[in-house]
C-alpha cells in the first residue's frame, strides 16, 4: 500500500474512534429524562436535590431526573457543554472562570447564601480568631489552587496583611498536622467535615470554633444551580419546572419539622455517615442556605457574585472582567 | 576407578514408562569406553545419574572413594562477559597451564583466545569446552556428544591425543557415531532399544581401542559395528 | 541516536494528539473552558514555563532517585525471592500479594508515617516502579542458565555471586527493558505522590490546575512530563547499551 494512503487511513481510524467516543457526549435522551450533575458526592450539601428526588417533588412536576454524583474529576459545566447533563451544580468561581473562557451557561439559583468553606480551629491556649488581624502569627492550612486559597489571599489583601505575617501550610489528605497542633486553622466545609471535626473535638473535651471569612466581608459564592444557554432557550418550561422543583426540595429539606425524614433520605445514599451526624449537618446547612430578610431560598446575591468575580480578576484567575448580569438569569419567566 | 549400579531404577517425574528398571551395570577404569544407543534410550540419563545430577528412584550407585566424576555435554557455553582465553586461564590451575597450552595447540585453538565464545564456530566451541574439562581434576569424564560438531579427521586426532595424554583416566564417551566408538573404545556399553518397561541390562561389547599411529583392520571394524548396531536395536544379548 | 529518535517520537505523538483535540474543538464548537485554544496554551507556556520546568525537574530528580532505590531494593529482595527455601517462598508470595494493593489505598499510611515531604514522594515512586522490577528479577534470578552454570556446578566453583552474574548477564536485554519500563512508572509514581500530598513537583502543579479546571496548564505540564520521561528513558537505554557493549566486547 502507498505510505501516504496508510497515513490517511490511520488518521481516518483515529478520527472515527474519537467521533464515536464523542457521540456519547451529544446523544439525544428521552425528552422527559433529565441528567443533573452534582458538585460533589451525595452529602448534606445536596440535601434539597436528594429530597426533591426522594419525596417525589420531581415526579409531581412531571420530571424524570437522574441525579449523578460529582467529584474531583467531575465538572458539571463540562457535562453541560458536552450534552451529558442538562442541569448541574457549580460554585461561582467555576461558573465565572468558564464563562470567561466562552462557556455558555446561566445561573438559575444560588443555593448557598454563605460559603460553607471556612476555617476550623480548636479553642485552646486562648486562641480566638474573630477578625482577619487575629490570623497574624498563626499557621493556616490552605489548599493551593483551591477556593480557600483565593478567599484567604483576598482577605489578606483587603486587610493589608502580609503573607509573611502568618505561616501557610499546604493542605492534603493527611489531617494529622492539624490534630497534632502543627497547624492552627484548617479549611473545612463547615456543614460537612466541620460537624465531624466538632464531634471528634467534643469527645476529647475540646471546643471547635470556626473562622468565617464572610463575617470579614469576603463573600465568595458557593454552590449554584446552572444550565446551558441552549437548554435555557430551547426548553424554558423544563428549566422553570426543574428550578422550582429544586427550590421546593431545598425548602422541604431545610424545614426543621422534616429533619429526620430528610436525614434518612440522605443516609440511604450516604450510608457511611450516621443519621445523628446528618441531622446536625442539616442544622448547620440551614444557616448557610436560608437567606436573611424576606428573600426566598435560591435567591441570587448579585453583589456577592460581583465580589467573587473581582477576587478572581485580582488574583489573575480570569483574564478579563466578566459581565455578571446576563449570567445570573434565574428561571425563565 | 570403579562404578557399579545395583538395581537402579529411574523415571522422570510426570512422564510415562521408566528409563531404567532394576539395572545392574558396572564400569572399571582406567580406559576409554563408549556408551552407545539409539535416541531416547537413556544415555544422557545414565550419565546424569552417575555424575550425581539426578538421583535414582530406587537402587544405588557405588563408587570408589574420592573419585571425581565430571559430566560435559555439547550444549555448554562459556560466560559471555570474558574472552575464551581469560575464562580458560581462570578455571585452570597454574600447575596445568602447560597442559592447557598443549591441548589448545593440538586443537588448533591458540589463535582464538581473544575471541568471545559466541564468536566461535560450533566445532570450535566443542573443542574449547572439552579442553577446559580436560584440565580439571577428574577420574572419570563423561563426554556426551562433546565433539558432535567437529569434522571427522580432527575428531579422530583429538580422541587419539586424549587417550595418549590421559592414560590413567577413565572416559565414558557418548556418541551416535558407531564407527567412532567401535574404533576408539576398549569396550562399548550399548543401551538396547525398545524396552517399554525400562532397561534392565546394558550390553558390553569389546572393541578395538585404537591408539595414535595404529590403524585397525577394516574387516574387524565392520564386524564390531555390526555387533553394536544389532545390540542397540535390541535384537541380541551380550 | 536513540535520544533524538525518542524525542522525535514524543513530539510527533504530542503534536498529533493536540491537533486532534483542536480539530474536535473546532468541529463541535467547544468553548475554551472545555478545550483551551492554541493561543491560551502558548500563553500559559510563556507565563508559567520556567516555573513548570523547575517543577518537572524536581519531579524527575525524585523519580530518578526513587527508581534507583527501587532497583537496589528489587535486586536485594529478588535475591531472597529466588530461593526455594521458606524465606524465598514468603518473599514471592508477599511480593505478589502486595502488588494487588493500589497505591492510593496505601498512600495515606505512607503519609501518616513519613509526612508529605520528599520521603513520601520517594517512597511512593519507588513502590510503584518496584513491583514490576521485583517480579522480573525474581524470575530472572531463579531461572538457571544451565548451559553456562553446568561447568561451574560440576567443578564445584558455583556460588550465589557467580550464579547472579551469569543470570544477570544472560538476561541483560530483558533487565534493561524492564528497567526502562519501570522508569516510566517511577515518573508516574512521583506524579501520583505529588498529586496526592506534596507541595512541589509537576503533580502538584497538575492538581492545582485541576482545581481551576485549567486544561491549558495540564497540557503544558503533560508536554514537559513527556519530554523529561523521553530523555530519561533514552538515557537509561543508552547506559544499558553501553554496559552491554562493554561486557560482551561488541
Index terms:
heterotrimer; A: 333 residues; alpha/beta; D-Maltodextrin-Binding Protein, domain 2; 5-stranded mixed β-sheet; 3-stranded antiparallel β-sheet; 10 strands; B: 238 residues; Rossmann fold; 6-stranded mixed β-sheet; 32% helix
Task: Report what the structure shows.
The complex is a heterotrimer of chains A (333), B (238) and C (250). With 333 residues, chain A is α/β, with parallel strands linked by helices. Chain A has 2 domains: 28-113 and 221-327, D-Maltodextrin-Binding Protein, domain 2, CATH 3.40.190.10; 117-216, D-Maltodextrin-Binding Protein, domain 2 (3-Layer(aba) Sandwich), CATH 3.40.190.10. Chain A is built from 13 helices and 10 strands. In chain A, strands 2-1-3-10-4 form a 5-stranded mixed beta sheet, sandwiched between helices. In chain A, strand 6 (139-142), helix 6 (147-158) and strand 7 form a beta-alpha-beta unit. In chain A, helix 2 packs across helix 10, helix 5 crosses helix 13 and helix 11 (259-269) crosses helix 12 (275-289). Chain A is globular and about 75 Å long. The N and C termini of chain A lie far apart (62 Å). Chain B has 238 residues and is an alpha/beta fold. Chain B has 7 helices and 9 strands; from the N terminus they run E-E-E-H-E-E-H-H-H-E-H-E-H-E-E-H. Chain B has helices spanning 43-51, 84-90, 97-106, 122-134, 152-165, 178-184, 218-232; strands at 2-10, 20-28, 31-37, 58-63, 69-73, 140-144, 170-174, 187-191, 203-206. In chain B, the strands form 2 sheets. Chain B has a 6-stranded mixed beta sheet with strand order 5-6-7-3-8-9, sandwiched between helices. In chain B, helix 6 (178-184) crosses helix 7. Chain B starts with a strand and ends in a 6-residue tail after the last helix. With 250 residues, chain C is an all-alpha fold. Helix content of chain C is 85%, strand content 0%. The longest helix of chain C is centred in the first third of the chain and has 44 residues, at 38-81. Chain C is elongated and about 75 Å long. The model of chain C has no long low-confidence stretch (mean pLDDT 88). At the A-C interface, helix 1, helix 4 and helix 5 of A face helix 1, helix 4 and helix 9 of C.
Please outline what is shown here:
The complex is a heterotrimer of chains A (333), B (238) and C (250). Chain A is an alpha/beta fold and 333 residues long.
Amino acid at each position: 500500500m502507498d505510505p501516504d494512503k496508510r497515513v490517511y487511513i490511520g488518521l481516518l481510524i483515529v478520527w472515527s474512534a474519537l467521533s464515536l467516543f464523542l457521540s456519547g457526549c451529544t446523544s439525544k435522551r428521552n425528552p422527559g429524562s433529565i441528567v443533573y450533575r452534582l458538585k460533589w458526592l451525595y452529602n448534606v450539601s445536596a440535601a434539597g436535590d436528594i429530597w426533591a428526588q426522594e419525596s417525589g417533588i420531581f415526579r409531581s412536576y412531571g420530571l424524570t431526573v437522574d441525579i449523578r454524583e460529582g467529584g474531583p474529576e467531575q465538572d458539571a459545566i463540562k457535562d453541560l457543554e458536552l450534552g451529558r447533563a442538562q442541569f448541574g451544580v457549580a460554585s461561582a468561581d467555576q461558573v465565572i472562570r468558564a464563562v470567561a473562557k466562552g462557556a455558555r451557561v446561566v445561573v438559575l439559583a444560588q443555593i448557598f447564601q454563605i460559603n460553607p468553606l471556612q476555617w476550623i480551629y480548636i479553642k485552646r491556649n486562648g486562641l480566638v480568631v474573630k477578625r482577619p488581624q487575629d490570623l497574624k502569627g498563626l499557621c493556616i492550612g490552605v489548599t493551593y489552587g483551591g477556593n480557600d486559597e483565593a478567599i484567604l489571599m483576598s482577605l489578606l489583601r483587603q486587610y493589608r496583611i502580609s503573607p509573611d505575617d502568618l505561616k501557610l501550610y499546604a493542605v492534603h489528605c493527611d489531617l494529622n498536622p492539624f490534630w497534632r497542633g502543627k497547624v492552627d486553622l484548617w479549611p473545612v466545609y463547615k456543614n460537612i467535615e466541620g460537624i465531624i471535626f466538632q464531634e471528634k473535638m467534643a469527645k476529647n473535651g475540646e471546643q471547635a470554633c470556626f473562622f468565617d471569612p464572610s463575617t470579614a466581608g469576603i463573600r465568595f459564592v458557593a454552590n449554584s444551580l446552572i444550565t446551558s444557554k441552549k437548554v435555557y432557550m430551547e426548553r424554558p418550561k423544563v428549566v422553570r419546572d426543574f428550578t422550582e422543583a429544586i427550590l421546593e426540595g431545598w425548602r422541604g429539606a431545610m424545614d426543621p419539622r422534616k429533619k429526620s425524614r430528610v436525614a434518612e433520605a440522605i443516609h440511604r445514599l450516604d450510608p457511611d455517615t450516621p443519621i445523628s451526624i446528618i441531622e446536625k449537618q442539616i442544622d448547620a446547612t440551614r444557616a448557610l442556605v436560608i437567606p436573611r430578610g424576606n428573600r426566598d431560598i435560591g435567591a441570587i446575591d448579585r453583589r456577592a457574585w460581583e465580589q467573587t468575580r473581582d477576587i478572581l480578576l485580582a488574583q489573575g484567575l480570569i483574564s478579563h472582567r466578566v459581565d455578571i448580569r446576563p449570567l445570573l438569569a434565574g428561571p425563565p419567566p | 576407578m570403579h562404578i557399579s549400579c545395583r538395581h537402579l531404577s529411574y523415571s522422570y517425574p510426570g512422564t510415562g514408562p521408566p528409563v531404567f528398571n532394576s539395572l545392574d551395570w558396572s564400569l572399571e577404569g582406567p580406559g576409554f569406553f563408549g556408551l552407545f544407543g539409539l535416541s531416547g534410550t537413556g544415555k544422557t540419563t545414565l550419565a546424569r545419574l552417575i555424575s550425581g545430577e539426578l538421583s535414582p528412584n530406587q537402587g544405588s550407585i557405588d563408587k570408589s572413594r574420592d573419585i571425581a566424576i565430571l559430566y560435559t555435554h555439547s550444549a555448554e557455553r562459556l560466560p559471555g562477559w570474558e574472552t575464551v582465553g581469560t575464562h580458560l586461564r581462570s578455571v585452570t590451575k597454574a600447575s596445568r597451564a602447560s597442559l592447557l597450552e598443549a591441548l589448545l595447540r593440538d586443537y588448533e585453538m591458540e589463535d582464538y583466545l581473544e575471541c568471545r565464545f559466541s564468536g566461535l564456530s560450533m566445532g570450535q566451541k566443542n573443542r574449547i569446552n572439552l579442553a577446559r574439562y580436560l584440565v580439571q581434576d577428574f577420574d572419570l569424564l563423561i563426554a556426551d556428544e562433546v565433539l558432535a560438531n567437529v569434522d571427522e579427521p580432527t575428531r579422530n586426532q583429538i580422541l587419539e591425543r586424549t587417550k595418549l595424554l590421559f592414560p590413567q583416566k577413565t572416559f565414558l564417551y557418548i556418541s551416535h557415531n558407531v564407527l567412532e566408538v567401535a574404533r576408539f573404545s576398549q569396550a562399548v556399553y550399548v543401551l538396547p532399544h525398545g524396552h517399554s518397561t525400562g532397561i534392565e541390562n546394558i550390553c558390553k561389547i569389546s572393541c578395538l581401542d585404537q591408539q595414535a599411529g595404529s590403524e585397525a583392520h577394516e574387516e574387524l571394524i565392520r564386524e564390531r559395528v555390526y555387533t553394536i548396531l544389532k545390540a542397540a536395536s535390541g535384537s541380541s544379548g551380550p | 541516536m536513540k535520544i533524538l529518535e525518542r524525542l522525535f517520537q514524543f513530539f510527533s505523538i504530542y503534536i498529533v494528539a493536540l491537533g486532534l483535540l483542536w480539530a474536535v474543538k473546532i468541529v463541535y464548537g467547544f468553548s475554551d473552558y472545555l478545550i483551551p485554544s492554541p493561543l491560551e496554551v502558548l500563553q500559559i507556556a510563556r507565563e508559567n514555563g520556567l516555573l513548570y520546568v523547575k517543577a518537572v525537574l524536581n519531579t524527575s530528580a525524585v523519580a530518578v532517585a526513587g527508581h534507583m532505590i527501587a532497583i537496589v531494593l528489587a535486586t536485594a529482595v529478588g535475591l531472597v525471592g529466588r530461593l526455594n527455601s521458606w524465606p524465598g517462598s514468603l518473599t514471592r508470595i508477599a511480593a505478589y500479594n502486595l502488588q494487588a494493593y493500589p497505591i492510593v489505598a496505601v498512600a495515606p499510611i505512607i503519609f501518616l508515617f513519613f509526612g508529605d515531604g520528599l520521603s513520601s514522594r520517594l517512597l511512593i515512586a519507588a513502590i510503584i516502579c518496584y513491583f514490576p522490577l521485583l517480579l522480573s528479577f525474581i524470575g530472572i534470578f531463579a531461572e538457571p542458565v544451565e548451559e553456562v552454570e553446568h561447568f561451574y556446578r560440576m567443578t564445584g566453583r558455583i556460588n550465589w555471586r557467580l550464579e547472579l552474574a551469569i543470570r544477570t548477564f544472560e538476561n541483560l536485554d530483558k533487565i534493561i527493558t524492564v528497567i526502562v519500563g519501570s522508569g516510566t512508572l517511577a515518573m508516574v509514581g512521583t506524579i501520583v505522590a505529588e498529586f496526592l500530598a506534596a507541595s512541589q513537583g509537576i503533580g502538584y502543579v497538575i492538581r492545582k490546575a485541576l482545581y481551576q479546571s485549567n486544561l491549558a496548564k495540564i497540557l503544558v505540564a503533560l508536554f514537559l512530563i513527556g519530554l523529561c520521561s523521553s530523555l530519561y528513558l533514552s538515557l537509561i537505554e543508552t547506559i544499558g547499551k553501553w554496559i552491554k557493549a562493554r561486557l560482551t566486547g561488541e
